[in-house]
Write a structure and sequence with these properties.
heterodimer, A: 131 residues, mainly alpha, 63% helix, 2% strand, B: 310 residues, alpha+beta, seven-stranded antiparallel beta sheet
C-alpha cells in the first residue's frame, strides 16, 4: 500500500513537472548529455527516456533518505549523477557493493584465515601469504 | 594440504587464479618502470566504515583539491549500507572539482596509471564472494621485482600487498578502479567512451571554466568526437564566452554535419542578431531530423516569431 502511494505520488510529480516543462518550453542549446546519449545509442532522448530518468532520480533520492542520508545531502547527491547513473543506481542501491570494511567476518574466521594465508584474501592485517 | 586444495578449487574458478600477475611477471609490459612509488601521496587513516571518504580524500588531495575525509562523509557515505557506492564515489570526486574516470580492469592499466603519476582508487573484496568484505584502497606504487603493489588502505599507511593476492581481491571487486584528475589532465589508459562519459558527467557539476579545460584536452586527443566538441561549445557558452562557443559549434557543424551543432549555432547566431544566418542553420538542423528535431523546430519557431514579416 505504502509502495503504491509512493508510486502514485511519483507519477503525479512527473506529470506536474512535465506540464511545467511544456508550458515554459523555449528554444535552448542542446545539452552535451543529450548529444552523448544520442551518439551512444543512435536513438534519441525520447520523452519516455526522460520520464524514466526523472523517476529514477526521485527513487534514488527516496532510497538514500531511507538508508540514513540527510534530505539536503540526498538532493545534492542525486543532482550530481547523470541520467544514466541515476537509472543504474535506482536498480542496484540495495545490492551494489558498498565499500566499508569487514562485514560478517567472525562467522567465517577460520576459513578466511586459511584463505588469507594462501594469498586469496586479505582480511586480517597480521597474515602473511605463503609463497 | 587436502583441505587447502579443496578450498582453492572454488576460489580459482571464481577469481581466475591470478593469471594477470603471472603474465606480467613472465612478460613485463614494454615501457613500464620496474618500481614506482608516490611516497608523497597523503594518508588518511580509517579504522571504521569510512574507507570510501578516506580513499576519495587521498586522491582528491593528490590531485590538488585538498579535502578531509570528514567533509566527504555527507557526500558519499550511505549509513544504511555502512559503506560507499561506486557511482557515488565518482560523483563525489566530480563535486570536488576532479574528473573521475574508471580505467580498464586490467593489472597492466592499473600499473600504467601509477607509472603515469596517478593514484588509483581500487575496489577490493577482501573476503570471499559469499562472505564479501568490500573495501576501497588507493594504489600508489608497485614493485615488479618484489612482486607487490603499494596501497594506502584503511588503517595501513603503506601496505605492500603481493600482486597475486591483490589480483584476487580486486577481481572479486569486479576489477573496478578509477582515477580522479584535475580538469585538463587525461588518464593514461582510459578509452574514448569511458573518458567521454566521465567528462559529460563532470560538466554537470563543474565550474564552466574547468569544464572548458577538461573538454579542450580531451578533444585534442580525440578530435573526431562530436560529443566532446559539443561539450566544449556548451562549456564555453556556460562560461559566458559566446564567441568561442560559436566558433566551436560552427567547426563541429561543418565537420560532422550534425543537427545538434547546427541547432546550437543557430541559437548563438540569433542571440547576436544574425537572424538570417540563424534561420538557415536552424532549417539545416531541422531538415536532418533525428533525435534533436524537436529542439531544432523550437529554435526555428523562436527565430521566425522574432523576425519581422516581409
Amino acid at each position: 500500500m505504502k509502495r503504491l502511494t509512493r508510486l502514485f505520488s511519483l507519477f503525479l510529480m512527473v506529470c506536474l513537472v512535465n506540464v511545467t516543462v511544456i508550458h515554459t518550453a523555449r528554444a535552448a542549446l542542446i545539452g552535451t548529455e543529450q548529444v552523448a546519449r544520442a551518439e551512444a545509442v543512435e536513438q534519441g532522448t525520447s520523452a519516455h527516456a526522460r520520464l524514466d530518468a526523472l523517476l529514477a532520480r526521485a527513487d534514488v533520492r527516496a532510497q538514500l533518505e531511507r538508508l540514513g542520508v540527510g534530505t539536503d545531502d540526498a538532493r545534492e547527491r542525486v543532482a550530481a549523477l547523470t541520467d544514466e547513473e541515476a537509472a543504474l543506481l535506482a536498480q542496484q542501491i540495495e545490492n551494489a557493493p558498498a565499500g566499508g570494511i569487514i562485514g560478517a567476518i567472525l562467522l567465517v574466521f577460520f576459513v578466511l584465515l586459511v584463505t588469507d594465508i594462501l594469498g586469496f584474501t586479505k582480511v586480517y592485517p597480521f597474515t602473511r601469504p605463503i609463497k | 594440504m587436502l583441505a587447502a586444495a579443496a578450498l582453492c578449487l572454488p576460489l580459482a574458478g571464481a577469481s581466475g587464479c591470478a593469471v594477470q600477475t603471472r603474465r606480467i611477471a613472465a612478460t613485463p609490459p614494454p615501457g613500464l618502470p620496474r618500481r614506482v612509488e608516490h611516497a608523497g601521496t597523503p594518508f588518511f587513516a580509517d579504522d571504521d566504515y569510512y574507507c570510501g571518504p578516506a580513499a576519495l580524500a587521498t586522491v582528491l588531495t593528490a590531485a590538488g583539491s585538498a579535502v578531509r575525509p570528514q567533509a566527504l562523509i555527507g557526500d558519499v557515505f550511505v549509513p544504511g549500507r555502512k559503506g560507499s557506492l561506486q557511482l557515488e564515489m565518482l560523483a563525489g570526486a566530480r563535486r570536488h572539482g576532479a574528473v573521475a574516470t574508471p580505467i580498464p580492469g586490467t593489472l597492466e592499466a592499473l600499473l600504467r596509471e601509477i607509472a603515469a603519476g596517478n593514484a588509483v582508487v581500487v575496489l577490493q573484496n577482501l573476503g570471499l564472494t559469499w562472505a564479501p568484505s568490500w573495501h576501497y584502497a588507493v594504489a600508489i606504487g608497485y614493485d615488479l621485482d618484489a612482486g607487490h603493489v603499494l596501497l594506502r588502505s584503511g588503517p595501513i599507511a603503506r601496505q605492500a600487498l603481493a600482486l597475486r593476492t591483490f589480483e584476487h581481491t580486486w577481481a572479486r571487486g569486479g576489477h573496478w578502479a578509477f582515477v580522479a584528475l584535475p580538469p585538463g589532465r587525461l588518464p593514461a589508459t582510459a578509452d574514448e567512451p569511458e573518458a567521454t562519459r566521465a567528462l559529460v558527467a563532470f560538466e554537470r557539476s563543474a565550474d564552466p571554466q574547468a569544464a572548458v579545460r577538461a573538454y579542450a584536452a580531451a578533444l585534442a586527443r580525440w578530435p573526431h568526437s562530436l560529443t566532446l566538441a559539443m561539450g566544449l561549445g556548451n562549456a564555453h557558452y556556460a562560461a559566458g564566452e559566446h564567441a568561442a562557443a560559436e566558433q566551436v559549434f560552427r567547426a563541429a557543424a561543418h565537420r560532422h554535419d550534425a543537427p545538434a551543432a547546427y541547432n546550437n549555432l543557430a541559437v548563438l547566431l540569433f542571440e547576436r542578431g544574425e537572424r538570417e544566418a540563424a534561420s538557415l542553420a536552424a532549417r539545416h538542423a531541422l531538415r536532418q531530423g533525428g533525435p534533436h528535431a524537436g529542439a531544432a523546430r523550437k529554435t526555428l519557431e523562436m527565430i521566425e516569431s522574432a523576425t519581422p514579416a516581409r
